[in-house]
Structure formats: C-alpha cells, structure tokens
Amino acid sequence: VQLQASGGGLVQAGGSRRLSCTASGRTIGYYDVAWFRQPPGKEREFVAGIALWSDNNTVYADSVKGRFTIFRDNAKNEMYLQMDSLNPEDTAVYYCAARPPLTPITSAREMFTREMYNYWGQGTQVTVSS
After folding, report:
1. By C-alpha distance, which of 82, 73, 62 is closest to 126?
2. How distant is the alpha carbon of residue 26 from its chain centre?
3. Which one of 25, 33, 56, 60 has the largest count of C-beta atoms within 10 Å of its C-beta?
4. Mind listing the pLDDT tens digit for each residue in 73-99?
5. 130 vs 23: CA distance, rounded Å
6. What CA dihedral angle connects 52, 59, 70 and 30, to 10 degrees?
C-alpha cells in the first residue's frame, strides 16, 4: 500500500487543522493505522492510532488526548487526523503509517512502536505559531 499525507501548514495557537492520508494499492480499512510526528530535533513519536485488535477503538498519546481525533473513511480509502486547540509544542512533521493485516498489531504497546509499521507516508509539516 502507498500512503500520501497532506493538509499540513501554518496555523495559529488555539486553531485547528485536519490532516489527510490517502491510501492506494490496498484497502486501508484492513490495516492497523496510526499517525506519528517528529518535532524539530526529536525522535518520531506516536500520536494516535486505530486499534483493529480492540474493535477499532482509538488510542492517543497523552499529549494530544482530548484535542486530536483519528478516524478513517474506508469508502474513500483515507484516514484523517483532526487537530484542535493546537499549541506550539504540536509543531512537527506528521506521518501516517500502516501495518498489513497478515501480521496485525495486538497490543497498545505495539501500537506505540514505530518499528511495527511497514508503510509510511512522506510526511506533512505542521507549524503552530504562538
């Protein structure tokens, strides 16, 4: 599957932004999916994911819980990250990621682990100004 992330840009603190990730080649609905981000000078970190192993429950990093929402539209073969109440600490390159169903993720710990994901989008920059 090929992933392409889009929707990044410059936004003021307190504002909102929606990122999109378009999948091609396979039906993304059967994949474990997640968003990661890489702030300047830091490691790539988990942001949010959809847990197929847990009946499609959503999982969030504590830093974004209550502000970000991950969801997908299987008919469009897309996934999204709705980001609200943005603050400068959210500035990062955001990546969408996926893992195929033959080797599914089976725990929250695995969901947070970037090495578990086989497919990555190219990243989209989100900059939040204060």
Report:
1. 82
2. 18
3. 33
4. 999 999 999 999 999 999 999 999 999
5. 33
6. -10
At 95, which amino acid appears? Y
Long-range interactions of 40-46: CB distance < 8 A, separation 24+ = 40/91, 40/92, 44/95, 44/114, 46/111, 46/112, 46/113, 46/114
- For residue 35 the two structure tokens come to 């968003």
Rounded mean pLDDT, 16-23: 97
- Beta strands of the chain (E only): which ranges? 2-6, 9-12, 17-24, 32-38, 45-51, 57-60, 68-73, 78-83, 92-99, 119-120, 124-129
For the chain, percent helix, then strand, then coil, each to nearest 5? 10, 50, 40
